[in-house]
Amino acid sequence: MAAQPRPGLAGAGGSVTDLGVYSINTTRFVLDADPVAVTGTTWTGTEEFESIPDERAAFTVEFPDGVLVSCTASQNAHYASNLRIVGTEGELLLEDAFLGGERELTITRGDTTITTNFDQIEETKESFRHFGDHLLTDTPLVGDGEHGLVDQRTIDAVYESAERGERIEL
Fold first, then answer.
1. What distance lies between CA 85 and its chain's CA centroid?
2. At CB < 8 A and 24+ separation, what contacts does 54-57 make?
3. What are the chain's domains?
4. What is the 3-state secondary structure (H, E, C) of 53-74?
5. Average pLDDT over every residue of 15-27
6. Are 23 and 71 in contact (CB under 8 A)?
7. Between residues 100 and 105, which one has the greater pLDDT?
8. pTM to 2 decimal places
9. Where are the alpha helices (DSSP H) in 34-119?
10. 91: pLDDT confidence band, cut at 50, 70 and 90?
11. Which of 75, 54, 86 is nearest to 160 (CA)?
């Protein structure tokens, strides 16, 4: 029997809060910019997820300079993850971007394509090591509470957009 969702512990949702935040935060890191607006939709249709508003979610995050990011997240779909950045001169594709298996990075520019494979790091272990190092050396952390609040406001806006059926400016 599958574990029953406990929305009181997870917060407002499931897919965007638990999984979609990685797409939001990674894009913020890559662009060194914060979102300016979002448009989102959510769906729940199976009994196991009836108490969670987003068994599946799709959302667009707008950044400055017209950069649009299309994101999907699901608590009930095939186990897959990638990060694809398509620009005017090329493309970057990172397979298994967030799941923990072997990663494959492919970069294409014009007629040139380079592919490399590398192992995932143990993210939680590295996060604790990084945090401990900053505590012991009394150096400031880059990702502070304000940084996390930008992610949370973006997540909240995805849910608001899905509920209202309109674009939400941040």
1. 14
2. 54/13, 54/14, 54/15, 54/16, 54/159, 54/162, 55/14, 55/15, 56/15, 57/13, 57/15, 57/16, 57/20, 57/158, 57/162
3. 7-169 (3.30.360.10)
4. CCCEEEEEEEEHHHEEEEEEEE
5. 91
6. yes
7. 105
8. 0.81
9. none
10. very high
11. 54
